[in-house]
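writing this on my phone so excuse typos. first protein, seq and then structure
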Amino acid sequence: MDSSLSPPAGTAAPDAAHDSTRVAGAQPVSALDRYFGITALGSTFRTEVIAGITTFLAAMYIIVVNPAILSKTGMAFPAALTATVLISFFGSCAMGLYARNPVLVAPGMGLNALFAFTMVHGVGMPWQTALGCVFWSGILFALLAALNARRFVVDAIPANLRYAISCGIGLFITVIGLVNAKLVIGDPVTVVRLAHLSPPTVTFLIGLALTTVLVARRVNGALMIGIVVTTLMAIPVGRLWGDGTAYFPKEIATATLVNFHGFFAAPDFSGIGQLDLLGALKVAYLPFVFVMLFTAFFDTLSTFMSIAEAGNMKDRDGNPRNMRQAMIVDSFSVLISGPLGTSPANAYIESAAGIAQGGRTGLTALVCALLFLPFLFLSPMLSLVPAIATAPALILVGVFMMESVARIEWHRLDEAIPSFIAVVMIPISYSITDGIAYSFLAFVVLKLFTGRVKEIKPAMWIVAALAVLLLTQM
């Protein structure tokens, strides 16, 4: 959540060979200790477990929020929940066991919005085909990671645009939360407006206020606590006052917002293997593959750079620790996301919460992975959660993603204008892809006609061409 967190007192830098704070003569006490380097990195088994629990609490909202978003595409909520849990388990296990970093991997916020609201609803792509696009983006990601090509890709897209895209996606997620809560509605005169207060919207506002306070006070698991409390407050809606019919599709609309269907159920594996690989290779869909690739790639890079700063987890060259292995893990996670039935997974900035608790090794990620598994059997309980309960989490995730707006060089107009277009167009167009496409084109045009054509990297020309292809397909 907060990438500016500093490591707690007494924790060591990760590069043991260059760590002046490590206790002299400290020796591993077990095979587990030796494998993860717990003692060598100045940590303890207890600290790593607590850190894993902390990270899980900070990010477990994704178990509810991701299926809620994916179910808008026609995917079954239980199937989306199963896919969310599985990818979080496998991705976090790989991050802990192979990359040995204390980083949680789960379906990415922003990427799931791109999947559901742009690709499926915006373009009319079947969700099976969208899963195919996820797979192909994973293939390309894996190639880039295997070739260690991150520097070439990072250098191609200007830093200002990367920051702006993150901000634009954050605003987009916030808009989705406001729309899901029915606080912002359409209007034929003003385009959009605030809805009149009603029992559901009042319940949402109270839940948003509570969640905001918990986040501001840095309470572990604040988003999930907000979801649970808002769900409990929503139980009377449709029973004692108000009507929740508008919050459901017409086919399953009920007056009550919270509907009980039991606590436990067998996992729903119906979404596994449903991806349409050939359909995803249509020329009109290729831009989406590349947008997913670049978004996942940049999200991973920015997350690891932030976390490395937060926990002083750098190698002797000052780069994030085990970066190549971490990129390979993230590409693996994207690659298997489609076959499992979910939007792409990536590293989570909420991992900084566990790092602030002292987590320094892959054991933290492994603990996170194991904590996801019980939720395979809790889909009926989690489907109790109404849209007004997950909306506060969406809005506050948008707040977290706006942090990078301060890093945009607003005084450089040839950089600031394309960045502004990305920040504004992504939420206003209700399309991550379109907002990115227009910002990339604006960047190329401005550089070209202001005599700065040398600042356009070769890969950026390719991206701009893909943007033109995308926009002409609309």
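second protein below, same order as before
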Amino acid sequence: MKIKKGDLVQVITGKDRGKQGKVIVAYPREDRVLVEGVNRVKKHVKAGTTPRGSKTGGIITTEAPIHVSNVALVVEKDGKKVTTRIGYRFDENGNKIRVARRTGEDI
């Protein structure tokens, strides 16, 4: 999977199209990523008590994973943020390096 934790991405399709956020968690086996502020869902949590005695539960809003094909990496070019695809190249030591296809620079 070419998108990794900590990358700045933009949603390119769906209800949150155009929103940008940082990848919190990547799930490579499911081809999904968790992006902050994107795909917010309401979750009903059963009421309970913590060991201190305070009440928990109710309706909470949290992020849900989004498919990696619905996001594009954001890089900066000439002071503007643009979306790009990701490629790979190998350096002289044989290490794999991610490359922004639109700008040609290393990520």
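The beta strands are 8-11, 20-27, 32-35, 40-49, 55-63, 66-67, 71-77, 80-84, 86-90, 96-100. thats all i got for now
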